[in-house]
C-alpha cells in the first residue's frame, strides 16, 4: 500500500485518527461507535480549511472520542469505505490515518452522548471493524516503527 493513494475523482477525501496508548498487555486502540449505525470505527471526518490533515485528525479525536495527545506528522496509511449519507446514498470515501498517542482521556467531550468508546487490543480492534484495509492498518500498527 503506497503512502499516497490514487484518489478516484468520485471519492471524497477524509482524515482519521488512530488513538493509541501503551496498555498493560501492549498497544491499545481507542475505538468508537458511529452515530448512525453504531458500528465500531475510528474518529474521522472531513479535511479542514486552515488546518493540516494531522491537525484535523487531532480535532476529530477530541470531538468524537474525547481524547487528546500527540499525532505523528505523516499518515500510516489509508483505507477506503462507503460513507452512508442521510439521503441513503453511499459515497465512496478514502481516509488517511494519523496515529495519535493519547495522553488525556476526557470524562465529557462534544459527542459523548452520541457514541460509545472502548480501549481494545490491536487484535480486537482489527476484528470489529468492517473495512479490511483499516483492519490491516490496525493489526500492523507498531508505534516503535515510525512512519514509512
From TrEMBL:
Cofactor(s) in the UniProt record = Mg(2+)
The GO biological-process annotations, alphabetized, read as: adenosine 5'-(hexahydrogen pentaphosphate) catabolic process; diadenosine hexaphosphate catabolic process; diadenosine pentaphosphate catabolic process; diphosphoinositol polyphosphate metabolic process
Look up the record and report any one GO term of the cellular component aspect.
Answer: cytoplasm
A molecular function (GO) held by this record is: endopolyphosphatase activity
Statement: the UniProt record of this protein carries the keyword Hydrolase: yes
The record's listing under InterPro entries reads:
DDP-like_NUDIX, NUDIX_hydrolase-like_dom_sf, NUDIX_hydrolase_dom
Membrane spanning stretches = none
**Pfam families recorded for this chain?**
NUDIX
SUPFAM superfamilies hit by this protein: Nudix
Keywords (A to Z) from UniProt = Hydrolase, Magnesium, Metal-binding
Provide the Nudix hydrolase domain boundaries. Answer: 10-142
Which PANTHER family does the record associate with it?
DIPHOSPHOINOSITOL POLYPHOSPHATE PHOSPHOHYDROLASE, DIPHOSPHOINOSITOL-POLYPHOSPHATE DIPHOSPHATASE
Name listed for the protein in its UniProt record: NUDIX domain
Organism per entry: Brevundimonas vancanneytii
Amino acid at each position: 500500500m503506497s503512502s499516497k493513494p490514487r484518489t478516484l475523482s468520485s471519492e471524497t477525501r477524509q482524515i482519521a485518527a488512530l488513538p493509541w496508548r501503551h496498555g498493560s498487555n501492549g498497544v491499545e486502540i481507542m475505538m468508537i461507535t458511529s452515530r448512525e449505525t453504531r458500528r465500531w470505527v475510528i474518529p474521522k471526518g472531513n479535511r479542514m480549511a486552515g488546518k493540516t490533515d494531522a491537525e484535523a485528525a487531532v480535532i476529530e479525536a477530541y470531538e468524537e472520542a474525547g481524547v487528546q495527545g500527540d499525532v505523528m506528522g505523516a499518515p500510516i496509511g489509508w483505507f477506503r469505505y462507503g460513507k452512508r449519507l442521510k439521503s441513503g446514498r453511499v459515497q465512496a470515501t478514502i481516509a488517511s490515518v494519523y496515529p495519535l498517542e493519547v495522553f488525556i482521556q476526557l470524562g465529557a467531550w462534544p459527542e459523548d452522548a452520541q457514541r460509545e468508546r472502548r480501549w481494545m487490543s490491536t487484535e480486537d480492534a482489527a476484528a470489529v471493524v468492517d473495512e479490511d484495509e483499516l483492519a490491516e492498518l490496525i493489526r500492523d500498527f507498531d508505534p516503535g516503527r515510525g512512519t514509512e
